[in-house]
């Protein structure tokens, strides 16, 4: 198998460097700095969630994902293990699969293995903002698929926005793209954020003459007890993962602004909006300058600075998200307990939206 990149064929065995295409536009750090400064002045205050997803953050998240109360990964794996053949059957032969975030390699392997068994020739592109994590993920996947006849594995280094821009500018892809958006990641930006990514990706494909579909997952659990156990602010895996974001913010700002010892983590389930909010919260009064020329930031003990959100969307809410992006849900699979998981085959077609 080969994948045409930049006008010529690159073979995995003879051209290992070309297995990762850098599509980043080089503005991530500058954008993050602006988001940090403006987010602390916003109401409610927040820090960009992208601060959590560097190499160290991904390793800390993997520890959280393996903890017993954190059911999301296990439930998604349960769905895939039970239904992977049916799910793979919805992915057309000849498609380019773009996974938005490297995700859980176990789940990716299940899907790609099913495609190999079904003899569906596909090119898989893992997208990630962390070059180190992306390279490690590709190393592991390539070892699993040595000698594969139908699955080609490569990587894209960049953000979601970089990927959409790359496709819209005429990326050398085949006639069809299947986006994998697993791990409940689509809910992190709320309803508007999810609709925006779905709509923009579909529009970019349309602009480039490509068909598109989305295989996404969404946590449907709305049990407060189970949710608060999974996102327990007192548990070390979550605390370490979230507070790491403050170290990342210091690196972006180029100096020590946040002392992690001055902060703790707070979790709240917002039933009205079907969201779990995880926040940084100071344990004492803090006054600090983030940027010259701006007034100092003053925070009282217990103030909330949002770190990340995780949606818990019912089937009706998920349908509304798809509809708002001018898409429709074709198929749904759920776990046996019906608390997680919806792997949805979302196809364009409600209207001829651009």
Automatic annotation (TrEMBL):
Family listed: Belongs to the methyltransferase superfamily.
Molecular function per GO: methyltransferase activity
Protein's name according to its UniProt entry: Histidine-specific methyltransferase
Sequence ranges assigned to domain Histidine-specific methyltransferase SAM-dependent in this UniProt record: 33-341
Keywords: Methyltransferase, S-adenosyl-L-methionine, Transferase
Species classification: Eukaryota, Fungi, Dikarya, Ascomycota, Pezizomycotina
Any one GO BP annotation for this protein: methylation
Organism: Aspergillus candidus
InterPro entries noted in UniProt: EgtD_Methyltrsf_superfamily (IPR051128), MeTrfase_dom (IPR019257), MeTrfase_EgtD-like (IPR017804), SAM-dependent_MTases_sf (IPR029063), SAM_MeTrfase_EasF-type_put (IPR017805)
Superkingdom to which the source organism belongs: Eukaryota
Residue ranges the record marks as coiled coil: none
């Amino acid at each position: 198998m080969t994948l045409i990149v930049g006008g010529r064929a690159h073979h995995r065995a003879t051209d290992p460097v070309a297995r990762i295409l850098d599509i980043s536009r080089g503005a991530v750090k500058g954008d993050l700095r602006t988001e940090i400064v403006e987010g602390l002045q916003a109401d409610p205050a927040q820090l960009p969630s992208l601060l959590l997803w560097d190499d160290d953050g991904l390793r800390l998240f993997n520890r959280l994902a393996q903890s017993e109360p954190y059911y999301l990964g296990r439930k998604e794996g349960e769905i895939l293990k039970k239904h992977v053949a049916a799910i793979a059957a919805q992915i057309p032969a000849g498609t380019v699969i773009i996974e938005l975030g490297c995700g859980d390699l176990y789940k990716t392997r299940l899907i790609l293995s099913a495609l190999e068994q079904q003899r569906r020739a596909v090119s898989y592109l893992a997208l990630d903002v962390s070059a180190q994590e992306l390279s490690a993920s590709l190393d592991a996947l390539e070892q699993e698929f040595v000698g594969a006849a139908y699955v080609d594995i490569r990587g894209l280094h960049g953000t979601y926005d970089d990927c959409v821009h790359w496709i819209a500018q005429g990326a050398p892809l085949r006639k069809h793209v299947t986006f994998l958006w697993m791990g409940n990641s689509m809910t992190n930006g709320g309803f508007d954020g999810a609709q925006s990514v779905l709509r923009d990706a579909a529009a970019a494909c349309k602009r480039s003459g490509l068909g598109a579909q989305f295989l996404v997952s969404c946590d449907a659990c709305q049990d407060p007890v189970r949710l608060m156990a999974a996102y327990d602010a007192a548990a070390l895996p979550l605390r370490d993962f979230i507070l790491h974001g403050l170290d990342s913010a210091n690196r972006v700002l180029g100096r020590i602004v946040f002392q992690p010892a001055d902060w703790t983590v707070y979790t709240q389930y917002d039933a009205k909006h079907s969201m779990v909010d995880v926040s940084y919260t100071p344990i004492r009064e803090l006054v600090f300058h983030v940027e010259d020329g701006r007034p100092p930031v003053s925070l009282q003990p217990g103030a909330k600075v949002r770190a990340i959100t995780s949606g818990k969307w019912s089937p009706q809410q998920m349908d509304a998200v798809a509809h708002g992006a001018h898409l429709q849900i074709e198929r749904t699979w759920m776990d046996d307990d019906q608390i997680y998981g919806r792997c949805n085959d979302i196809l364009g077609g409600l209207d001829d939206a651009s």
